[in-house]
Design a protein that fits this description.
Length: 355
């Protein structure tokens, strides 16, 4: 910075004002001088020291992400979304992943050791540990910038969520528009525990409301809940279980919505093993993570959580808090992936032997 100042013939603080874009500074720099400083910095290949800047401003220029292992399929997209926004502020995401409440405490303490300037906390599906919730609440009340992502546990903080109920509605409405009337929902067997599994409950509630409004009867097929969220195989086996239950039904649905695309992957494989053709014998729609929707044959028509967009909004809320503003709470709608696993209902398309 001294070299740039010397080359231009201005003071070091003037260079600092320009290179750090401090528009509200009491040090005034003319547009001509600003241009000369920027040109000299480029010619001298000047790169500001982020460490030095952080020490002088008492900032780490890191935004912490404390993410639950249950969200493994979404983690990369969430990080990319946070990075999209952080790059504009010369910040970097710092990721801490946990699998249970004990590990959550350890990773939280590690994030504090790294002195992150804000923290985005993921409490998806199950509520955060009560001790953790109290800790986060006190941090927020003390003024620390904290945002809750994919959860509904921490009171009085900005929150970015998935519109689970709206997604359940949209799934039904899509199938009804194609002529389906017998539409089943495949969901894990813990979905009625509203407190522990509020996301599944919300999706089911949207499904049930849309079926009622369409004058249709809800049909629920349950499959085992997963206790090892980081492992895809139990989800696939859960879907195979659902396929066996579906095949037993007397009044078989013409379409099924599956909560969880890894579970839908197992459902499709289970039905195909029983010589069912998709979508000729039954239409299958997935929900939640992106990758399995693109791996099935036929490719799965699915609503996928817009994790990157959620990460962007969570980061925007965190930066708003760091600037002393109010962080915005938002509900993010999921995006459609168009596959070939859903077709309009007609006897010409769906085999009469299957229905």
């Amino acid at each position: 910075m001294y070299d740039v100042a010397k080359a231009v013939g201005v003071s070091g603080p003037a260079v600092s004002v320009v290179l750090n874009n401090r528009l509200g500074s009491t040090i005034k720099v003319s547009p001509e001088t600003r241009a000369r400083i920027l040109r000299a910095a480029e010619e001298l290949n000047y790169t500001p020291s982020l460490l030095g800047r952080g020490l002088s401003e008492q900032k780490s220029y890191a935004i912490g992400l404390l993410l639950s292992e249950i969200n493994a399929p979404l983690v990369a997209d969430v990080i990319r979304g946070v990075q999209d926004v952080s790059n504009e502020q010369r910040y970097s995401p710092m990721v801490f992943i946990h699998g249970d409440s004990k590990e959550e405490t350890t990773e939280f303490e590690r994030s504090m050791d790294r002195q992150v300037d804000a923290l985005i906390v993921d409490t998806f599906d199950a509520p955060a540990d009560p001790a953790s919730v109290e800790r986060y609440r006190k941090m927020s009340q003390a003024g620390f910038p904290l945002v809750e992502l994919f959860g509904n546990s921490i009171p009085d903080v900005p929150r970015v969520n998935v519109d689970f109920m709206g997604d359940g509605r949209r799934s039904v409405e899509r199938l009804v528009s194609l002529g389906h009337q017998r539409i089943a929902l495949v969901v894990h067997d813990q979905y009625q525990k509203r407190i522990e599994h509020w996301a599944a409950w919300g999706f089911f509630s949207g499904y049930r409301a849309a079926m009622t409004e369409a004058g249709l009867k809800a049909s629920i097929i349950t499959a085992p809940a997963i206790t090892t969220p980081g492992d895809s195989q139990p989800f696939i086996e859960s879907g195979r279980h659902a396929a066996r239950e579906l095949i037993k039904l007397k009044d078989r649905p013409t379409a099924v919505i599956c909560y969880g695309n890894r579970r839908a992957f197992g459902l499709v494989k289970g039905l195909q093993y029983a010589a069912w053709n998709i979508p000729e014998d039954i239409s299958v729609m997935g929900y939640y993570e992106r990758e399995p929707a693109e791996l099935t044959e036929p490719p799965l028509t699915s609503l996928v959580v817009a994790a990157r967009r959620a990460g962007q909004q969570a980061a925007q809320a965190a930066f708003a808090l760091m600037e002393g503003k109010s962080g915005v709470t938002a509900a993010v709608a999921s995006d459609w992936i168009e596959g070939r696993s859903v077709a309009p209902y007609s006897l010409e398309v769906h085999s009469a032997s299957r229905i």
